[in-house]
Amino acid sequence: MLRIGRMALHLLAGMAICAFIFPFIGPEKRNAHVRRWSRQLLAICNVSVQVSQDSAEVLEHGMVVCNHISWLDIFVINALYPCRFVAKSEIRDWPLAGWLVAQAGTVFIARGNKRELRTIFKGLVHALQEGQRVAFFPEGTTAAQGTILPFHANLFEAAVDGKVQVQPFALSYVDAAGQPHQSVDFIGDMTFAQSVVNILDGKPVRARLTVLAPMPGAGAHRRELAQAAHNAIGTALGILPAAETLQEHSA
């Protein structure tokens, strides 16, 4: 109960920062707040982060793509490399946390809304061309650890049009023995609240984030770019990618 109370207070503190500080500061200071707040949230959740770089520096601007396991993923990445995220619209309904990620600049996409997708796509291209670092989860939903779902290819077109690089991140969560930490899986009918309780009541978690080599978007085809990113992440996680993994829908 103590950790749940600490998390609730931390969420409220984050809301106050978004409401009373973010409107008056620039992107650099905002990113510093996002990084600090995310690290504190992970500490409350007993999550430590281990980073390895596959001979690759993290892009200062460009498109970041990562496999998707839990609601923790956004905060693990933001604790290290704050990004402007693109996420499914359901996240907006998470208690408190949904409002927070929205205030941090997250763009939400409703399933099947092609008109909205076109508008968001233009905004992403503009953000990338302005030098922002944009991130999304191309699986479109969370998957159990040890699996990697098909990648939706549509949003990769923003990197092609913006002529920026795409950098894959491979993410996993392990326990003290180095085995997949089952308390982190956020799949099926599990609610956000149930997932939070599982993590807070569970054993310490180590998030392993591997930064992979960036891929040029200029002149590429979105499907080939998505396939290459899928293969790179699958290989880093030790998962054999399926031969046919692409879908034309965006989540």
From TrEMBL:
Keywords: Acyltransferase, Lipid biosynthesis, Lipid metabolism, Membrane, Phospholipid biosynthesis, Phospholipid metabolism, Transferase, Transmembrane, Transmembrane helix
Transmembrane segments: 7-26
InterPro entries recorded: AGP_acyltrans (IPR004552), Plipid/glycerol_acylTrfase (IPR002123)
Listed Pfam families: Acyltransferase
SUPFAM superfamilies in UniProt: Glycerol-3-phosphate (1)-acyltransferase
Keyword Glycosyltransferase: no
EC number(s) from the headed UniProt entry: 2.3.1.51
Catalytic activity reported: a 1-acyl-sn-glycero-3-phosphate + an acyl-CoA = a 1,2-diacyl-sn-glycero-3-phosphate + CoA
GO cellular component, one term: membrane
Annotated CDD domains: LPLAT_AGPAT-like
Pathway stated in the Swiss-Prot or TrEMBL entry: Lipid metabolism; Phospholipid metabolism; CDP-diacylglycerol biosynthesis; CDP-diacylglycerol from sn-glycerol 3-phosphate: step 2/3
Entry's Gene Ontology molecular function annotations: 1-acylglycerol-3-phosphate O-acyltransferase activity
Domain Phospholipid/glycerol acyltransferase: 62-174
GO biological process: CDP-diacylglycerol biosynthetic process; phosphatidic acid biosynthetic process
Comment on protein domains: The HXXXXD motif is essential for acyltransferase activity and may constitute the binding site for the phosphate moiety of the glycerol-3-phosphate.
Family the UniProt entry places it in: Belongs to the 1-acyl-sn-glycerol-3-phosphate acyltransferase family.
PANTHER family from the UniProt entry: 1-ACYL-SN-GLYCEROL-3-PHOSPHATE ACYLTRANSFERASE, 1-ACYL-SN-GLYCEROL-3-PHOSPHATE ACYLTRANSFERASE-RELATED
Protein name: 1-acyl-sn-glycerol-3-phosphate acyltransferase
Naturally occurring in which organism (per UniProt): Pseudoduganella guangdongensis
Organism placement in taxonomy: Bacteria, Pseudomonadati, Pseudomonadota, Betaproteobacteria, Burkholderiales
